[in-house]
Design brief:
The chain is an alpha/beta fold and about 500 residues long. It has 20 helices and 17 strands.
Length: about 500
């Protein structure tokens, strides 16, 4: 027994320094932010085996090598298909009628995500869940060629079941229906009978980013498909913050009230990049060639329908780098008068936080609306750790009290906006597969600002005096959980 203990001690003394040395080289060569690198090196060195294991699990934006290879193939195929299908009318935008930052953002998004701004679009902004689900159902019932859908969460009950029935009817009448739902976000739903019903009706259904021990070795299990996209016949598209759920039947025991969301219904050229985004996600999961999927779903360039100019920017590990962050930074840096932001979770990247503070310093009125109650204990407290510096620099923080405000939006000067699936947190920026619309249309931005103002009317402004009265234990908890904010 004594000899075994001595042998184990010697192995520990030999293995641990070797592992620390190897991972130290790996961390250094990946060149993360200096503070992040030092934190990981300290954790790896001070916690034998557990620290190295934790780093290998969540320390890098690591995707499976095969997925990375498929992503490269998808980007090349998508660019080729886009070049073949693009018509001059699609990208003819009068940038002189826009703020100067708009044209620069178009170039930035085109370079980073490969998708230029599309003109010729019509839109309807919806903020009532029942109306959203009924209208999506009606669009599916009118489908003649294809229905493409992907969501982070699907939850049975209420008006959500209306969409499921419409999808089953569409598949049964021969419409090509593809549905992609995140494996982890919709885990309870995958265990219900609804997936079986959809498959029996003829819907092509797939779980996105399955989890498991084997996948944890090859990549990260916590990379999630957070997009919400519906495209019907390649001409009508939906996106926004809402999962495929009826709030009356979703997380009723979480104590945060009903989830409050918004979606936009789009017609025109912009439907094409949203359709390609969804089909690209399907191709990554199934290994089907993108060109074959385009043919099977009979996708074509949709006709123009309106005048709105909108740019689609998808993002995610291995996909478009820091495109989402760069676009948001450009948007905020371009503000001259007012910024209004809504998000359920505010856990910003340092660059985003500095941009907001810089906007206030140059005289821009910045308002942030977040829900008073959040469903995640960890995220709620990590988010609140940023309130001190925001209030100190002059950001107005409002706590929405009529449910879990889930709408993700940024409006700037009432003329440009971001709207989509992206929370203002590091998980959305770096770890999730997201999609956002950058809107260069004053009419649509005006509708979004009106919606944001309605949230303000149901929110209470948080003053520094009230905030400073909270207990020390809460401050300590918030600052502690802030250390884990990149994972939340």
């Amino acid at each position: 027994m004594h000899d075994a203990f001595i042998l184990g001690s010697w192995l520990l003394w030999i293995l641990h320094p070797t592992i620390v040395f190897a991972l130290a080289i790996r961390v250094i060569m990946r060149r993360p932010a200096t503070g992040v690198a030092l934190a990981w090196l300290l954790l790896i060195a001070l916690t034998p085996f557990l620290g190295p294991l934790f780093y290998l699990l969540v320390g890098e934006r690591r995707i499976e090598r095969s997925r990375g290879s498929r992503l490269k193939t998808f980007r090349a195929d998508a660019q080729q298909l886009a070049a073949q299908g693009q018509v001059a009318e699609m990208t003819q935008i009068d940038w002189t009628a826009q703020p100067p930052i708009a044209a620069a953002m178009d170039k930035l998004g085109t370079r980073l995500a490969g998708i230029p701004t599309a003109g010729g679009n019509n839109f309807q902004l919806f903020d009532r869940t029942d109306e959203i689900l009924r209208t999506i159902s009606a669009d599916i019932d009118r489908a003649q060629k294809s229905v493409l859908m992907e969501f982070y969460i699907w939850n049975a009950g209420g008006e959500a079941d209306r969409v499921l029935e419409a999808l089953c009817r569409a598949a049964q009448r021969g419409i090509c229906c593809y549905l992609l739902v995140d494996a982890l976000g919709a885990r309870p739903w995958w265990k219900s009978d609804q997936p079986r019903r959809l498959r029996a009706a003829g819907v092509h259904l797939r779980a996105a980013l399955p989890t498991g021990l084997g996948r944890a070795v090859l990549g990260r299990n916590d990379l999630r498909l957070h997009r919400k996209i519906v495209v019907v016949d390649g001409t009508t598209a939906w996106t926004g913050s809402m999962n495929l759920v009826d709030p009356r039947f979703f997380k009723q025991d979480s104590g945060v009230g009903r989830w409050v969301d918004a979606m936009v219904r789009l017609e025109g050229f912009v439907a094409a990049p949203l359709a390609l985004t969804m089909l690209g996600d399907w191709a990554l999961e199934t290994k089907q060639p993108l060109a074959d999927l385009v043919c099977e779903t009979e996708l074509q360039v949709p006709p123009p329908c309106g005048t709105a100019a909108i740019q689609v920017v998808p993002s995610g590990p291995g996909e478009s780098g820091d495109a989402q962050l760069q676009m948001m930074l450009a948007l905020i840096h371009g503000a001259t008068a007012a910024i209004l932001m809504t998000t359920p979770y505010f856990v910003p990247d340092d660059a985003l936080l500095f941009a907001v503070r810089g906007a206030v310093s140059r005289g821009v009125a910045v308002k942030l609306i977040v829900p008073e109650k959040v469903d995640s204990f960890l995220t709620r407290h990590a988010s609140r750790s940023y309130f001190d510096e925001l209030l100190e620099c002059g950001v107005e923080i409002y706590l929405y009290g009529k449910g879990l405000l889930h709408t993700k939006s940024i409006s700037v000067d009432g003329r440009i906006a971001m709207f989509g699936t992206v929370n203002l947190d590091m998980r959305s920026i770096w770890l999730n597969y997201e999609v956002a619309l950058y809107v260069y249309d004053q009419s649509l931005v005006g509708q979004l600002v009106h919606l944001q103002q309605s949230y303000l009317a149901d929110a209470t402004r948080l003053t520094p005096q009230v905030w400073n009265e909270r207990r020390y234990v809460h401050r300590f908890l918030e600052n502690t959980l802030r250390l884990a904010s990149p994972l939340l």
